[in-house]
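In keeping with the milestone schedule agreed at the kick-off meeting, the structural modelling team has produced records for the first pair of proteins. Each record is given below as a sequence line and a structure-token line. The laboratory manager (R.T.) confirmed that both were archived under the project's standard naming scheme.
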Amino acid sequence: MKKLLLLRHAKTEPINQSGSDLNRALTARGASDATRIGEYIRAQGIKIDLVLTSSARRAVQTSELVADAAGLNVPVNSDRRIYEAGIRELSQLLKEVDSQHDSVLLVGHNPAIEELVKWLTDAVQAMSAGTLAVLAFKGNEWSRLDSGTCTLESIITP
């Protein structure tokens, strides 16, 4: 059975008038929370084959901190499409994942991450900053990912 981990980026600094949303960085608490999520992944022995992340600075930072704390030896793949994606775009991106990958971590933004959890599992789950949803995908090929094809195994909040 394949695993899909959906992570909302960790807590970020607010937008200021001179900065852009894409360049917002994690706060100290956000960095700490991301590290704790990675430590949880390591402690649970969750193997991750592929990391996909939004190109927003806060998502990339979250991904890198999680990967480091989890002891992952996989590249963090930044994809601009994730930044403003909705369910349709995120599910299409996931359907394109090579089925040799048994476990995928996707780091993105709300409301899309929260809506994707609901769409895939039929479970309503609040996804505050830094929250991780661990899903079991009932299929063998990511191309078959669709509404209701996953079960929610756990929710981890920092």
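The second protein of the pair:
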Amino acid sequence: MKDLYSYIFDLFMLPLEKNGLSQVRKKLLIKAKGDILEIGPGTGVNLKYYDSEKVQSLTQIDLKIAESLKEKGEKNSDFPVDLIEGSVEELPFCSRKFDCVVVTLVFCSVVEVNKALQEIKRVLKDDGIFIFIEHVLSNNTFLAKIENVLNTPWKSFAGGCNLNRETRKSIERNGFQVLEFDTGWKGIMISGIEKKNPKA
């Protein structure tokens, strides 16, 4: 049975999914392959977008595993799913373990962003890819001002979620190189695929 948190979260996200977010998930996650680490899977919305023919294994790690995620993982028979409770700042995996790391709508609430990105870089194989979808500070001046004004009350209301993170800059400062990149909703959403930067 779906827990109350999962129900409220999925209900809140429904308009966003219908207005393009689901298409972005589908476009990017079909490119995930091999041994995959998904950080912050939440209620498990990404699970249906993976290509079972490309996935060897899927490990999902979150601070707390939602009941709906457990149910989806148990019902999935296309590939093995391993659920682990833990923090992105201290990933409990050996270096160069994963072919792909997936993060969707997570870095808005990560406490130590740089440390988390270094951990992702550490567990990713040298030829692996980092897939991300995040909401960020808009490149539209007017919208950015609104985000900055609303950030403090929103952060308190939304459990530490920040409206004005500049996540793309953080990713590239921490040794990643763009393979694909896109923006949406007047710059509020960013998505893409990165790889390790051999020069960083």
